[in-house]
Each structure stands twice: as structure tokens, then as C-alpha cells.
Amino acid sequence: MSLDQFVLAASAGDGILDKLNTGDILATLFFFTLLMILLKKFAWGPLMGIMDQRAELIASEIDEAEKSRAESAKLLEEQRALLKEARTEAQAIVENAKQQGDAQRAEIMETARAEAARLRENAAAEIANEKEKAIQAVREEFVSMSILAAEKVLGKEVSEEDNRALIEETIQKAGEGR
């Protein structure tokens, strides 16, 4: 019976049950039910088991990813803290180096000033010493010339000791007159 005939017979309402093959319907229902039971036991159960395992695997991977993300965030914060600490230490080192440089510069300047003062004092002492030597040389030359002049004026030779005493006395008087 074709579908068209079935529709016509149903619309006519006359003996539709006579034309349906109830044996075939019952056999089809029995085999469909048997197929569903077998599918549930051998296909649906293992398939659902695999799906549950897959769901558990995905859930565990999500948990691991979340843990990894949290650990990465923690490590990132630690790295930032270490970087901040390193910057602070570097800044302290630079500041310390500046302070040491300033202290060394001040020390070098003080040493240079002290050395310059010492050199001035030495130079002044040496100048005074050279001046004293020059004055002494001029005195001796003056004494010698005075003795020669006195000898010529007097026409006789005066003892060197007398001349020297006389000249020293004259130099003293001349020095007091300054």
C-alpha cells in the first residue's frame, strides 16, 4: 500500500485497521526496542563514559590552566617586586657613589690647599733664607771693600779683626738708622 492509498483510506474511514499489517508493526516495535536496549548497553554507556572522562580531562586542564595563570601572576608580581628592589638598590648605589665622589673631591681640594699652603711657607722660608744669605754676602763684600778703602785712606794696614769690628759696628748703626 502506498502512502497515497493510506491517506485516502484514512480519510474515508472505512476499515483502516484491516489494511494495516499489525504483525509488521509489532515486529518493528520489538526490534526497535531491542535495538535501543542494545545501544544503551553497548554504545550509549561506553560513549557516555568516554564523554565523562573527556569532561573530567577538560575540567582538570582548566584547573591546571587556572593554577598556572595564578602562579604566573604571582611570579609576575615577584618579578616586579624584584625589579623595583633592584632599581632602588641601583639608585642607592648611584647616590652612594655621588657622595663618595663629592667626599673625595672635597678631600682632594683640601689636600691641594694644604699642599699649596705648605709650598708657600717653604717658598717664603727659602726666600727669607736666600735674602739672609744675600744680606750676609753683601755685608761681607761691604766689609772687604771697607777694609780696602780704610787701608787706602789710612795708608797703612789695619788688622783684620779691628777693621771687622769697626765695620760691624758701622753696619749695626746703619741698620738701626733704617
Describe this protein's structure.
93% of the residues lie in helices and 0% in strands. With 178 residues, it is mainly alpha-helical. The protein is built from four helices and no strands. Helix 3 (22-154) packs across helix 4 (160-177). Residues 62-140 form a coiled coil. GO terms for molecular function: proton-transporting ATP synthase activity, rotational mechanism; proton-transporting ATPase activity, rotational mechanism. It is a single-pass membrane protein.
Helix share bin: over 70%
Label the structural class: mainly alpha
Helix tally equals: 4
Compute the number of structural domains.
1
Topology pattern, helix = H, strand = E: HHHH
Largest beta-sheet characterization: none
Quaternary state of the chains: single chain
Runs in which pLDDT lies below 50 for 5 or more consecutive residues are none
The proportion of strand residues reads under 5%
**Distance, first to last CA:** 166 Å
Name the overall outline.
rod-shaped
Transmembrane segments: 25-44
Pfam families: ATP-synt_B
Coiled coil: 62-140
Membrane topology: Single-pass membrane protein
